[in-house]
Amino acid sequence: MFNTKGVAIAIAMIFAGSAYAQTATPNLDKRQANQEKRIEQGVKSGELTTKEAARLEKREAKLEADKQKAKADGVVTKQERAKLQHEANRDSKAIYRQKHDAQKAK
């Protein structure tokens, strides 16, 4: 009636999918890509100086390092996600502030 090999494969796929879901951070990944674009656009338009851009890139690199650290044990907990989200919020606000301050690239 049931193909035991097929059932075993289906169960394995379910567990593999749930393990991936625990370490996946698709919203944060999209957000990081968007923030990188905002920094690049700010440099191109002259809204960001090279020094400001370098500082913002450093913040983005720290966010990426923190994300990888959270993923290292195979599970990104709710608390870790909240911390990463908070860090991304701070970085986003910093990008906005730097793009809208009086300093302009020459």
Which secondary-structure class do the elements indicate?
A: mainly alpha
The number of distinct β-strands equals 0
Total number of domains: 1
* Distance separating the two termini: 75 Å
Gross geometry? elongated
The share of residues in extended strands comes to under 5%
Mean pLDDT: 88
Largest beta sheet, briefly?
A: none
Radius of gyration: 20 Å
- Order of helix and strand elements from N to C terminus: HHHH
Low-confidence stretches: none
Q: Percent of residues in helical segments? A: over 70%
Distinct helical segment count: 4
Could you walk me through the main structural features you see in this protein, from its secondary elements to its overall organization?
This protein has 106 residues and is mostly helical. It has helices at 4-23, 26-45, 50-71, 78-99. The protein has one domain (25-99). The model has no long low-confidence stretch (mean pLDDT 88).
Comma- or semicolon-separated keywords:
79% helix, mainly alpha, single chain
Tell me briefly what this model is.
The chain is mostly helical and 106 residues long. It is built from 4 helices and no strands.
Secondary structure elements and pairings:
Blueprint: H1 4-23, H2 26-45, H3 50-71, H4 78-99
Helix pairs in contact: 2-3, 2-4, 3-4
